[in-house]
Amino acid sequence: MIAYFIGLSAGLVPSLSTGPVFLTLVQNAIDHGFKKALYFIVGVALTDTSIILLTWLGLSQISDGSEPPAELSIGGGILLILFGLVFIFKKEKEQKPAASSSSHLQKFGLFTQAIMLNAINPIIWGFWAAISNYAIAEFNDTTSELLFFAGVLNMVWITDVLKAYYAQKLNKYLNEKFKRYLRIGIGMVLAVLGAKLLVEYYLM
Q1: Which residues contact 11 (CB under 8 A, 6 or more apart)?
Q2: Are 20 and 193 contacting, i.e. CB atoms less than 8 angstroms apart?
Q3: Are 74 and 173 in contact (CB under 8 A)?
Q4: What digits encode the pLDDT tens for the residues 184-201?
Q5: Which of 7, 66, 107, 174 is an S-S bond match for 148, by CB 3.0 to 4.6 Å?
Protein backbone atom coordinates (compact mmCIF):
# COMPACT_ATOMS: atom_id res chain seq x y z
CA MET A 1 0.00 0.00 0.00
CA ILE A 2 3.00 2.29 0.36
CA ALA A 3 3.18 2.52 -3.44
CA TYR A 4 -0.43 3.72 -3.50
CA PHE A 5 0.28 6.61 -1.10
CA ILE A 6 3.39 7.54 -3.07
CA GLY A 7 1.13 7.64 -6.12
CA LEU A 8 -1.30 9.95 -4.31
CA SER A 9 1.57 12.36 -3.62
CA ALA A 10 2.79 12.20 -7.23
CA GLY A 11 -0.78 12.85 -8.41
CA LEU A 12 -0.64 16.31 -6.87
CA VAL A 13 1.61 17.44 -9.74
CA PRO A 14 -1.00 17.08 -12.54
CA SER A 15 -3.81 17.93 -10.10
CA LEU A 16 -2.37 21.38 -9.38
CA SER A 17 -1.40 22.18 -12.95
CA THR A 18 -3.36 24.81 -14.88
CA GLY A 19 -3.02 23.54 -18.44
CA PRO A 20 -5.58 23.27 -21.25
CA VAL A 21 -7.53 20.43 -19.60
CA PHE A 22 -7.94 22.39 -16.36
CA LEU A 23 -9.08 25.53 -18.16
CA THR A 24 -11.54 23.63 -20.35
CA LEU A 25 -12.91 21.70 -17.37
CA VAL A 26 -13.57 24.88 -15.41
CA GLN A 27 -15.24 26.55 -18.38
CA ASN A 28 -17.44 23.51 -19.06
CA ALA A 29 -18.49 23.35 -15.40
CA ILE A 30 -19.47 27.03 -15.51
CA ASP A 31 -21.30 26.68 -18.84
CA HIS A 32 -22.98 23.30 -18.40
CA GLY A 33 -23.02 22.58 -14.66
CA PHE A 34 -21.34 20.03 -12.43
CA LYS A 35 -23.20 16.89 -13.57
CA LYS A 36 -22.45 17.40 -17.25
CA ALA A 37 -18.84 18.34 -16.48
CA LEU A 38 -18.48 14.86 -15.00
CA TYR A 39 -18.68 13.45 -18.54
CA PHE A 40 -15.67 15.58 -19.45
CA ILE A 41 -13.85 14.21 -16.38
CA VAL A 42 -14.67 10.63 -17.40
CA GLY A 43 -13.21 11.30 -20.85
CA VAL A 44 -10.01 12.68 -19.29
CA ALA A 45 -9.78 9.73 -16.90
CA LEU A 46 -10.23 7.20 -19.71
CA THR A 47 -7.53 8.87 -21.80
CA ASP A 48 -5.08 9.17 -18.90
CA THR A 49 -5.54 5.49 -18.05
CA SER A 50 -5.04 4.47 -21.68
CA ILE A 51 -1.87 6.55 -22.05
CA ILE A 52 -0.42 5.09 -18.85
CA LEU A 53 -1.19 1.59 -20.12
CA LEU A 54 0.48 2.26 -23.46
CA THR A 55 3.61 3.82 -21.99
CA TRP A 56 3.86 1.25 -19.23
CA LEU A 57 3.64 -1.66 -21.65
CA GLY A 58 6.15 -0.02 -23.96
CA LEU A 59 3.74 0.24 -26.91
CA SER A 60 4.60 3.89 -27.57
CA GLN A 61 7.92 5.39 -28.56
CA ILE A 62 7.29 8.11 -25.98
CA SER A 63 7.85 5.65 -23.20
CA ASP A 64 11.56 5.36 -24.01
CA GLY A 65 12.16 9.09 -23.48
CA SER A 66 12.41 10.04 -27.15
CA GLU A 67 10.78 13.10 -28.65
CA PRO A 68 6.99 12.96 -29.12
CA PRO A 69 5.88 12.18 -32.67
CA ALA A 70 5.42 15.21 -34.91
CA GLU A 71 1.74 14.36 -35.32
CA LEU A 72 1.13 15.00 -31.62
CA SER A 73 2.72 18.43 -31.65
CA ILE A 74 1.03 19.50 -34.88
CA GLY A 75 -2.34 17.95 -34.11
CA GLY A 76 -2.28 19.13 -30.49
CA GLY A 77 -1.44 22.68 -31.52
CA ILE A 78 -4.19 22.82 -34.11
CA LEU A 79 -6.73 21.30 -31.73
CA LEU A 80 -5.93 23.75 -28.94
CA ILE A 81 -6.27 26.67 -31.35
CA LEU A 82 -9.63 25.36 -32.57
CA PHE A 83 -10.95 24.90 -29.03
CA GLY A 84 -9.71 28.38 -28.18
CA LEU A 85 -11.52 29.91 -31.15
CA VAL A 86 -14.71 28.09 -30.19
CA PHE A 87 -14.58 29.62 -26.70
CA ILE A 88 -13.74 33.08 -28.07
CA PHE A 89 -16.53 33.22 -30.65
CA LYS A 90 -19.15 31.15 -28.85
CA LYS A 91 -22.40 33.11 -28.54
CA GLU A 92 -24.68 33.00 -25.56
CA LYS A 93 -27.96 31.20 -26.04
CA GLU A 94 -31.16 31.77 -24.17
CA GLN A 95 -31.48 29.14 -21.45
CA LYS A 96 -34.21 26.67 -22.33
CA PRO A 97 -35.05 23.23 -20.95
CA ALA A 98 -32.91 20.81 -22.95
CA ALA A 99 -34.59 17.98 -24.79
CA SER A 100 -33.46 14.52 -23.74
CA SER A 101 -31.74 13.78 -27.06
CA SER A 102 -30.01 17.18 -27.04
CA SER A 103 -28.82 16.64 -23.47
CA HIS A 104 -27.37 13.22 -24.32
CA LEU A 105 -25.62 14.69 -27.36
CA GLN A 106 -24.13 17.45 -25.21
CA LYS A 107 -22.84 14.92 -22.68
CA PHE A 108 -21.30 12.85 -25.47
CA GLY A 109 -19.74 16.02 -26.88
CA LEU A 110 -18.08 16.83 -23.55
CA PHE A 111 -16.83 13.25 -23.27
CA THR A 112 -15.29 13.23 -26.75
CA GLN A 113 -13.91 16.76 -26.30
CA ALA A 114 -11.96 15.55 -23.25
CA ILE A 115 -10.58 12.55 -25.13
CA MET A 116 -9.47 14.68 -28.09
CA LEU A 117 -7.95 17.40 -25.92
CA ASN A 118 -6.05 14.93 -23.74
CA ALA A 119 -5.02 12.29 -26.27
CA ILE A 120 -3.36 14.63 -28.74
CA ASN A 121 -1.49 16.78 -26.20
CA PRO A 122 2.24 15.85 -26.23
CA ILE A 123 2.69 17.36 -22.75
CA ILE A 124 0.19 14.85 -21.36
CA TRP A 125 1.99 11.98 -23.07
CA GLY A 126 5.35 13.19 -21.82
CA PHE A 127 4.13 13.48 -18.23
CA TRP A 128 2.54 10.04 -18.12
CA ALA A 129 5.58 8.51 -19.80
CA ALA A 130 7.73 10.00 -17.03
CA ILE A 131 5.34 8.62 -14.41
CA SER A 132 5.51 5.17 -16.04
CA ASN A 133 9.29 5.22 -16.21
CA TYR A 134 9.47 6.26 -12.55
CA ALA A 135 7.20 3.39 -11.51
CA ILE A 136 9.26 0.85 -13.44
CA ALA A 137 12.52 2.14 -11.95
CA GLU A 138 11.24 2.56 -8.39
CA PHE A 139 9.19 -0.59 -7.80
CA ASN A 140 10.23 -4.18 -8.25
CA ASP A 141 6.88 -5.84 -8.86
CA THR A 142 3.82 -5.34 -11.01
CA THR A 143 1.44 -5.06 -8.06
CA SER A 144 3.32 -2.10 -6.59
CA GLU A 145 3.46 -0.39 -9.98
CA LEU A 146 -0.29 -0.79 -10.43
CA LEU A 147 -0.95 0.53 -6.92
CA PHE A 148 1.25 3.53 -7.69
CA PHE A 149 -0.69 4.25 -10.90
CA ALA A 150 -3.98 3.85 -9.01
CA GLY A 151 -2.83 6.42 -6.45
CA VAL A 152 -1.81 8.95 -9.11
CA LEU A 153 -5.06 8.55 -11.05
CA ASN A 154 -7.25 8.63 -7.95
CA MET A 155 -5.73 11.94 -6.87
CA VAL A 156 -6.27 13.39 -10.35
CA TRP A 157 -9.88 12.19 -10.48
CA ILE A 158 -10.75 13.47 -7.00
CA THR A 159 -9.29 16.92 -7.63
CA ASP A 160 -10.93 17.15 -11.07
CA VAL A 161 -14.32 16.47 -9.48
CA LEU A 162 -13.64 19.13 -6.84
CA LYS A 163 -12.58 21.65 -9.51
CA ALA A 164 -15.81 21.08 -11.43
CA TYR A 165 -17.94 21.24 -8.29
CA TYR A 166 -16.51 24.55 -7.06
CA ALA A 167 -16.43 26.05 -10.57
CA GLN A 168 -20.17 25.42 -10.78
CA LYS A 169 -20.65 26.99 -7.32
CA LEU A 170 -18.76 30.03 -8.55
CA ASN A 171 -21.15 30.35 -11.48
CA LYS A 172 -23.97 31.93 -9.44
CA TYR A 173 -21.68 34.80 -8.43
CA LEU A 174 -20.72 35.67 -12.01
CA ASN A 175 -22.79 37.92 -14.25
CA GLU A 176 -23.13 37.18 -17.95
CA LYS A 177 -20.66 39.89 -18.97
CA PHE A 178 -17.95 38.52 -16.70
CA LYS A 179 -18.57 34.95 -17.89
CA ARG A 180 -18.26 36.15 -21.47
CA TYR A 181 -14.89 37.80 -20.73
CA LEU A 182 -13.77 34.70 -18.82
CA ARG A 183 -14.65 32.48 -21.79
CA ILE A 184 -12.76 34.75 -24.16
CA GLY A 185 -9.76 34.81 -21.81
CA ILE A 186 -9.65 31.02 -21.55
CA GLY A 187 -10.08 30.74 -25.32
CA MET A 188 -7.14 33.08 -25.88
CA VAL A 189 -4.94 31.07 -23.49
CA LEU A 190 -5.82 27.81 -25.28
CA ALA A 191 -5.10 29.38 -28.68
CA VAL A 192 -1.75 30.75 -27.48
CA LEU A 193 -0.76 27.37 -26.03
CA GLY A 194 -1.66 25.74 -29.35
CA ALA A 195 0.35 28.29 -31.32
CA LYS A 196 3.28 27.75 -28.93
CA LEU A 197 3.24 24.01 -29.70
CA LEU A 198 3.29 24.66 -33.44
CA VAL A 199 6.04 27.29 -33.21
CA GLU A 200 8.22 25.08 -31.02
CA TYR A 201 7.79 22.18 -33.46
CA TYR A 202 8.76 24.21 -36.52
CA LEU A 203 11.74 25.77 -34.71
CA MET A 204 13.09 22.36 -33.64
Answers
A1: 151, 152, 153, 154, 155, 156, 159
A2: yes
A3: no
A4: 888 888 788 778 878 876
A5: 7
